[in-house]
Design a protein that fits this description.
Strand order of the largest sheet: 1-2-3-5-7-10
CATH architecture: Alpha-Beta Complex
Radius of gyration: 18 Å
CATH superfamily: 2-enoyl-CoA Hydratase, Chain A, domain 1
Number of domains: 1
CATH topology: 2-enoyl-CoA Hydratase, Chain A, domain 1
Number of strands: 10
Number of helices: 11
Order of helices and strands: EEHEEHHEEHEEHHEHEHHHH
CATH class: Alpha Beta
Length: about 250
């Protein structure tokens, strides 16, 4: 299991629970998160959700890159991309408001997950990044959502160079809505969640749906197709092998 679930007073806290691997998102993470949200949406008592990471170092370091090597054919690569996209969509489209409480590194899929959430609260120690080009890939959901969150130029800077963004910069560019001392992170996130939980749930759900009304769903298909193609390139194979081997990659662009 990748998730720990705790509920109290209408607020559910979902903790990505693999601190030894910086809460990397393994293959089971994606359906687990979708299932957890579906259960909370149906229970009739949950009014708000907080997603955070276990430990003090990371919200999530992103996808488990070492496991990408097991995706040996186009069918498995496409299925993996679709699984990720369904999960980001489940967060984005959930009638429940979802708050990301970012306690450390939010890299790759971890950064993308914050963009799928409705509100992002960050510890002053938080760091955000989309470093996928270093392993021959791009952030499939991030390329769709980051431009509307932080603008096209910041998206390109972070995506092309792997530039890491600290909490204060993330606040300035709109990736984060609140920055607080690390010791106050969960209390702040819970305070926001409890304020939301006290509001009319149908109004909150309707408001979220209306704000998201212009979000394109067809984008997922072309992003999935592009990522599936990239996963099959020599550059991606080299990037993943270099990551696993802890050496610099040598890309040839073929």
């Amino acid at each position: 299991m990748n998730l720990r679930i705790e509920e109290e007073k209408g607020v559910a806290v979902l903790t990505i629970d693999d601190p030894a691997r910086l809460n990397a998102m393994g293959a089971t993470f994606w359906p687990e998160l979708r299932g957890a949200l579906a259960t909370l949406e149906a229970d009739g008592t949950t009014r708000a959700v907080i997603i955070t990471g276990a430990g003090e170092k990371a919200f999530s370091a992103g996808g488990d890159i070492a496991s990408f090597a097991a995706l040996t054919d186009v069918t498995s690569k496409r299925a993996f991309q679709q699984d990720c996209m369904r999960t980001f969509a489940a967060v984005e489209e959930s009638p429940l408001p979802v708050i990301a409480a970012v306690n450390g590194y939010a890299m790759g899929g971890g950064c993308e997950l914050t963009m799928a959430c409705d509100i992002v609260v960050a510890a002053d120690t938080a760091v955000f990044g989309m470093p996928e080009t270093a392993v021959g890939l791009v952030p499939g959901f991030g390329v769709l959502r980051a431009p509307s969150v932080i603008g096209r130029h910041w998206t390109k800077l972070m995506m092309f160079t792997g530039e890491r963004v600290d909490a204060d910069t993330a606040l300035r560019i709109g990736l984060v809505q609140k920055v607080v001392p690390a010791a106050d992170l969960m209390a702040t996130a819970r305070g926001l969640a409890e304020r939301i939980a006290a509001a009319a749930p149908l109004a909150v759900a309707t408001g979220k749906n209306l704000v998201n009304a212009r979000v394109e769903r067809g984008e997922f298909d072309h992003s999935t197709a592009a990522l599936t193609t990239l996963h099959a390139t020599a550059d991606a194979a080299e990037g993943i092998a270099a990551f696993v081997g802890k050496r610099p990659p040598v890309f040839e662009g073929r």
